[in-house]
Amino acid sequence: MAVLQNKIDFALVIAVNHANPNGDPLNGNRPRETYEGLGEISDVCLKRKIRNRMMDLGQNVFVQSDDRCNDGFKSLKDRADGCPAVKKAEKDKDAYAKAACETWLDVRTFGQVFAFKDTKGFSCGVRGPVSIHQASSISPVEVESIQITKSVNGEKKEKGENRASDTMGMKHFVRFGLYEIKGS
Prior knowledge:
The chain is α+β, with helices and mostly antiparallel strands. It is built from five helices and nine strands. The strands form three sheets. Strands 1, 4, 7, 8 and 9 form a five-stranded antiparallel β-sheet that branches. The protein has a two-stranded antiparallel sheet with strand order 2-3. Strands 5-6 form a two-stranded antiparallel ribbon. A hairpin with a 5-residue loop joins strand 2 (23-24) and strand 3. The two termini are 19 Å apart. 18% of the residues are buried.
């Protein structure tokens, strides 16, 4: 594959049908919307979806979510310190960046800032060639909510406690939305 020499702008379209593309934790996990009613998907959410797909394809990823961690490291610092190639290069900023890019596909793709507290004597920034911006729906979205019942206990019942295993909740979704993602 040839090395890319010039900036390339791109746009992707995502169709969402009866799903929640990016719930807002500060708003009861409802799909994100602007004041004008346009749906939004954050750039962080899009990168997470891409990283998860990279992991599904067997690629090494530096920024892993807790629920999809596949290497046993609980923090980014532990993951960086646990990589022999990166650890070996920790005295030289350029060698460190090169080793990180060779090890993790998401660092090579999106970039990463390795900021250290006085332990290594430097911080290392890797600039990735791919920038992804937040997605916005092309037209206003209609958010619907339905009440759901969970029929499984999340906690063990205490002896003598008379409690039903059902709990009520809400599920929010976009009936249909066409989202445009721009990047370079």
